[in-house]
Amino acid sequence: MKIKAYTLNAFAKTIDGGNPAGVVLNADSLSENNMKKIAGILGFSETAFLMRSDCADFKVRFFTPTEEVDLCGHATIGAFYTLLSQNVIKPGNYSQETKAGVLNVKVNDNLSIMMTQKTPIFYEIIGKEEIADSLNLHSDQMLADLPVQIVSTGLRDIMVPIKNMKILNGINPDFEKVKAISRKYKTIGYHLFTLESINGSDACCRNFAPLYGIPEESATGTSNGALGCYLFKYGKLKAQTPYPLVFEQGYAMKKPSEIMVSIISQGQEVVEVRVGGIALNLSEIEIDLR
Hints:
Belongs to the PhzF family. One of its GO terms (cellular component) is cytoplasm. Keywords: Isomerase. GO terms for molecular function: isomerase activity. The active site is at residue 46. This protein has an 18-stranded mixed sheet that branches. The protein has two domains: 2-116 and 278-288, Diaminopimelate Epimerase, Chain A, domain 1; 121-276, Roll (Diaminopimelate Epimerase, Chain A, domain 1). β15 and β16 form a beta hairpin. It is α+β, with helices and mostly antiparallel strands. The protein has helices at residues 32-42, 73-85, 128-134, 165-170, 175-184, 221-233; strands at residues 2-10, 19-24, 47-51, 58-63, 68-69, 92-98, 101-107, 113-117, 121-126, 148-152, 156-161, 189-194, 203-209, 214-217, 245-249, 257-266, 269-277, 279-288.
């Protein structure tokens, strides 16, 4: 059986940047094992499989090379860019059924794509020493006024505030310890950030998810959505931000990426989170599942 798949770079800042994703359209007839196999063959951090839905415009399932995950931001951007490029959809508002719920996606006239995430849930605060040890850091290399905390807008990630860009770029994690801690706290991985940036953005980030076969990811939509909510909660953003926040990621991997996050609040409560960006370098390949 031969399957047509698409590859592209989502959240790309340059043609060399972004996070590569796979996309398979019309995946209704594929078994879960076939989807896992395709994701493994493509070898990207996530591949999106689109199928018919009874409650949304599309049903989308997301697979890493080793696991199915409930939601993936950059693969969502890739999926809807692929639909647009193949003339399946036009700019407008759509919905996707995912294991994280039914979420809205807006395709803009400028080809940028914004996906709605779930409103944030703030889980436990974790001791900085435990996380620092797994990153080969000292706890005083983290920002003193922000906690290490698990936050989810669809997926549980550990937010890790780092003092400055130099420390962030120099981090060399102990991936076995990161795996163990991710397993212990039932999280996808770590989302590190500093409030310094390269291009005047709101933060610069690195993301480690070795438990799911992703040592480092160059652009992470769900984690940056959670980061935007975390920064709002701890007073680092203005209420009713009238423009998307911009987060940098992937620079340590030489894959410059730009993720836009829009936070809408009522008082101290986040009522809507949107994450988006653009995609580049769409190509088509054929996979033989024999």
